[in-house]
Design goal:
Chain A has one domain. Helix content of chain A is 80%, strand content 0%. Chain A is built from 13 helices and no strands. The longest helix of chain A has 34 residues. Chain A is elongated, with a radius of gyration of 21 Å. Chain B has two domains: 212 residues, P-loop containing nucleotide triphosphate hydrolases (Rossmann fold); 76 residues, Alpha-Beta Plaits (2-Layer Sandwich), CATH 3.30.70.100. Chain B has a six-stranded mixed β-sheet with strand order 6-7-8-3-9-10, with helices on both faces. In chain B, strands 2-1-4-5 form a four-stranded antiparallel β-sheet, covered by helices on one side. In chain B, helix 3 crosses helix 4. The longest helix of chain B has 16 residues. The chains are: A mainly alpha (265), B alpha/beta (307). Chains A and B meet through helix 1, helix 7 and helix 13 of A and helix 2 and helix 3 of B. The site of adenosine-5'-triphosphate has 12 residues of chain B, from strand 2 and helix 1.
Chain lengths: 265, 307
């Protein structure tokens, strides 16, 4: 297991030499931290009376039920920001795709795969190391952005009730647990593709082709989550744990050292 | 299982890639502590053989044992025991020489890694440039770094696929001396090379190989088998009647006159030379030097490969 960490450190040493990679890792999460704050600021004095808000149908009636204890602008803030929370959950899945799709085929094209496979590293260690190296920075960047957002929300919220709703156990679970699980899912697919193709560019394209629709699917599915459902999010976590484990086992099975080294067409 | 004395035992080892039969029922044993040359034309299957023996690819059929571990069954043990200089010395270009080595060293669980890294970087003349990214290195420098990588974990069995390719004469000499030292330390070395002179000087035994084995012996025995032994007599003037005189001896296999030299084929020069020298002097020859003609390994190789 120590080898996993050695590999992760090598990957980071290699990729974070490049400032551009740091930037692209941090950019999307930061954007998702700043945008909802801007919106919160803009909707700060939308409507003070919750009944006024109900009559405008700006906020779906189902959502209104969640606004118990909030005033009109609080409810509006909560509604808009909730949609960003979904994105917060999804970014860790989007950011590492490129990095992960490069993981195996990249080593092959630089001819480092052969000496690497000649070392006593087990396939599962290799894949875990590659997957973690891609997942961890994306998750950390997202969490950091979320923290920035949470601090901003404290400052900008019209009523303390809004902050309480935004930072409740449900959303924290979504971001702290579901987000990383989604990231692992996407990364595993990308690593799997990376060990099946012969060209890093193809790996990137194919991975994007696989992972982005998945993101869309999750976003569509999760729209239901806005109408707060603790059960749904827990189910999602459970299903993802099973999926991740299965996918990862599959990726390990699929990984044929010899084929990867010798197939060029 | 393998004999105690053999570091590598290969039985009927075969590898095919789709239509290409790269290695065809190869059977040889490599003795512990020897330098074993694997020679053969491009595409002969040398790299493929080395890859099978270092558990990178599996044989299509046949079996092999490396350091007592069976290929295909104890791959993990083989990988920790052997060192390999791969045909293309792939390195992480963004990382420094030192970082590259320490990464691989950690993978091999090298004890006292910093000292090992320093030792080999110094030995191969890369210490001064250890913090520079390998991407900026010349081909030969990368090659030297790859040699260091193969040695970091002090492997008992070492596979070197064209170690001196791309090296300047001085560096190539250094590497050759280095390989000779490694044998002194008791390691078993399988050396692939296209430099026949290098193989001649370094290898205890040589396998000439083109999908299957063409010949296997010590360099000198290969020469003798193919060409016999030849002794050259440098004379002040080589008169034709001297050649006739030499030919009269029943043990003489052949005589050639080239300029002022007599080139005589003998099977046992150690006992036959004194007789010939005596006779020649009495027949009026003025002998300047006597020596054995060393057939170039190149000729041996050409003969074998083109047969
Ligand atoms: N990955 C591969 N896919 C298909 N054929 C291969 C592959 N690797 C090697 N071969 C074939 O196997 C044969 C032996 O190749 P190998 O690389 O072992 O030769 P070699 O003796 O190392 O040659 P060289 O002296 O040029 O390095 C060649 O015909 C080659 O085309
Ligand atoms: Mg080769």
């Amino acid at each position: 297991m120590r080898k996993i960490w050695i590999l992760v450190r090598k990957e980071w040493a290699e990729v974070f030499k490049n400032r551009f990679v740091l930037f692209t890792t941090a950019f999307l999460p930061l954007l998702f931290a700043v945008l909802p704050l801007v919106i919160m600021y803009a909707t700060g004095n939308y409507a003070s009376d919750i009944n006024d808000l109900a009559s405008t149908s700006d906020v779906p009636p189902e959502f209104m039920e969640l606004c118990v204890g909030l005033d009109g602008s609080g409810c509006m803030q909560y509604f808009l920001v909730s949609q960003f929370m979904l994105l917060f959950m999804m970014v860790p899945m989007i950011i590492p795709v490129t990095f992960a799709s490069y993981s195996i085929v990249g080593e092959k094209s630089t001819r480092t795969l052969e000496p690497l496979l000649a070392t006593p590293i087990k396939t599962i260690e290799l894949l875990t190391g590659k997957a973690l190296a891609a997942t961890i920075p994306a998750v950390l960047a997202t969490w950091l952005s979320f923290l920035i957002f949470a601090i901003g929300a404290f400052i900008l919220a019209t009523s303390p009730g809004v902050v309480g709703k935004i930072l409740d156990a449900l959303w924290l679970t979504a971001i702290i647990v579901v987000g990383p699980l989604l990231a692992i899912f996407g990364v595993t697919i990308a690593v799997m593709i990376s060990s099946r193709v012969n060209d890093p560019r193809v790996a990137e394209q194919v991975s994007a082709l696989f992972v982005l629709p998945l993101v869309g699917l999750f976003v569509a599915q999760s729209l239901g989550l806005i109408y707060l459902n603790a059960q749904l999010i827990l189910w999602m976590a459970v299903i993802l744990i099973v999926l991740d484990t299965g996918m990862f086992a599959f990726a390990t099975q699929l990984f044929q050292r010899e084929t990867i080294l010798t197939r060029w067409k | 299982m393998s004999d105690q004395e053999d570091a590598i035992v290969i039985q009927e080892l075969t590898k095919s890639f789709d239509a290409v039969l790269a290695v065809d029922r190869l059977s040889v044993s490599v003795h512990a502590g020897e330098i074993f040359g694997l020679l053969g034309p491009n595409g002969a299957g040398k790299t493929t053989t080395i890859r099978m023996l270092s558990a990178l690819i599996g044989p299509t059929s046949g079996r092999a044992w490396v350091a007592g571990y069976e290929v295909g069954k104890q791959n993990q043990e083989i990988r920790s025991t052997v060192g390999i200089l791969t045909e293309s010395p792939g390195m992480y270009d963004q990382l420094s020489a030192e970082r590259n080595l320490s990464f691989f060293g950690e993978m091999y669980e090298v004890a006292d890694l910093p000292a090992q890294v320093e030792r080999y970087l110094r030995m191969l003349g890369l210490w001064e440039r250890r913090f520079e990214p390998v991407g900026t290195f010349s081909k030969g420098m990368r090659q030297k770094l790859a040699i260091a990588r193969a040695l970091l974990h002090e492997p008992k069995v070492l596979f070197l696929d064209e170690p001196t390719s791309g090296l300047d004469p001085e560096a190539a000499l250094l590497v050759r001396q280095f390989i000779a030292e490694l044998r002194e330390e008791g390691r078993t070395i399988v050396l692939c090379t296209h430099n026949l002179d290098e193989a001649d000087r370094l290898c205890d035994r040589i396998a000439v190989f083109k999908s299957n084995l063409l010949a296997l012996d010590t360099p000198n025995a290969l020469r003798r088998k193919l060409f016999g032994r030849k002794v050259v007599f440098h004379l002040v003037t080589a008169k034709p009647d001297l050649a006739e005189f030499v030919k009269q001896h029943p043990f003489v296999q052949s005589v050639e006159v080239v300029d002022n030299k007599l080139i005589v084929g003998l099977d046992d020069p150690e006992s036959q030379n004194p007789l010939l020298i005596n006779g020649l002097v009495q027949a009026g020859a003025e002998i300047q030097f006597v020596g054995e003609v060393r057939q170039r390994l190149e000729d041996v190789y050409m003969q074998l490969v083109n047969a």
